[in-house]
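From the shared-data thread, chain only:
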Amino acid sequence: MASHSGLKYVLETKKGYVKKDGSFTNKINEALLIDFLEFGFAANAEDVYKKLGFKDQEVILDEVKFHTVIPAYEARDGIGIKYYLLMGYDLEKACNQSARDYYDYKLYNDEECLKYQNDLRAKVLDYYKKCKTISQVLKMNNKELFLYETNEEKQEILGGFLKCYYSDIGSVYRYSIPLKNPHVEKYFNMNKEDLNYYNYFQQNGLKEYFLNRFNNEKFNFGLHYDTEILDIKLDNDELIIYLNDWNNWSDYKVAKAICSIIRDFYFMKEMHITRMFGSYVILQKINGELTAVKANSVPIKYCPLMIKLLKEVGGELAEKLINSLNTNDEKKQTELMCQLINQVVIKSGYFDTNRPLNSCEDNVLFGASETISSAFKSELLDAAVIVSNNLGTIITTDNSNTQGAVKRMTGLFYTTPAESIIKIAEDAGIIPVFPYTGEINQIQGVKQAINMGYKRIAVTFAAQDNEFMNQLKELESAGTIIYKFGLCSTGIGKEVAQTMLENADIVWSCASKNVKEYIEPNAIAQVGIKIPVYIMTKKGWELVKNHLEFMSNQQKLNDITLCNGDERAIILNQNNDLKLIKKKELHNCTDCPYPCI
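Structure, as tokens:
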């Protein structure tokens, strides 16, 4: 107990600081000052509140916290360290000066200790006014608050950046967090008004929501009753917050709370971009219900895989959409596309944030997730970096959570995370790379997988994002093998196709003209004819061969010679068995996607 002699604190609640008569104040110097030794280690703040005879049940049910005003005697020689650091002292000099202050300023006396802290704050402010230029100006209640940049380095916390300033009111903390923007111009040709609407749909109203939530819940974040948001603004897809307090004992706790509030707001205005028949589709939560609201014209008239899948689950509506593809009525096509997404995708639970994320169901014979799942079964992979609805980029580590995370997804380019699905993912052994934003960034996903110690990693890229494959070269080092899967290639440009040619291990052709022109001639093996899967490297063949071995005997596959040109091996599914032919034996396909774009 003696080790905490001299420690004085006040009781802090959501209603304010507790005064001597049990009422509340927002001024800490008006609160009841309590000596730690009165109650010792055994008591928590709620016990102290009750023992003092206070009985406000609302306070007891919420929370009561200690707020140290004067540290224990043995800690007072360290009071000055942070102030001297703010004035440019190095750590050793700051510690030595603070230790000398203990006797020079009689810090063993409570009144002198409080005076010393106030004097140091004034001294720091005087230093900044004389030695620094004003970095920023905040307007508060018709007054200007001048901020001076300190020597403290900017910290990255949960994707946001924390920076400390000094001012007339002491330290001011600036936390800036990048906000999501779907950048719909990448997928849709729209007028400026529509672009602004969709790109900023989820940001509109965020400031007001954030202020309300933060002010009501700041006490739970480890912040004090008198913590204030001095300024808040949206600027260039960033939320920027200035606070007069930050929980220096747990930077992560405050940043996590801020990011959670933003995630909750975004989920209230949920939004996704997916794809079907080469058409991009926007989904939005309108009046609490997720709905497909916008689709661009359908570029593909026929796709055997999509027709097969749609006929299995789409019924009459699927038939209408399929029939409409042979007409020039784009408005009807896009309307039916949205209706089909609503009926088949949304109502079937693909965006249900309480859906299970483990599954052993194979949806297609030669799909990417099926190939990855087989590799997990054979222990050829440690991890896979893929994409999932309401999660964004994720890391999976076994066959069941890989299949469960993607199901029949036909392309995901933007998504909104939800706390409930994040928890389900973690319970299923899935690692969300961006649990607060649901960002789709496969490069960062691979980096995180490597940092976690995984050595054999599969990664999928979709559509134009295949252009990022070349960034993985620098991540492949001794002992780390990255298997690169190129997916959803319909409509990619020549430059992206060239990048895939130079980097991909396996490429799914979809209805891509440029894949057929650039990738196909250089493939060393091929699976399927209608929608070919092109194997580009021996690494890629290792995974494909393993997947095929679950369908046929190994000897048949061992006879395959990897090469391009007319002698290239093509593996077909025939009566639930594999058939091998060479490219020169291949006839023109009569059931392939068209047109290729």
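The chain has 19 helices and 26 strands.
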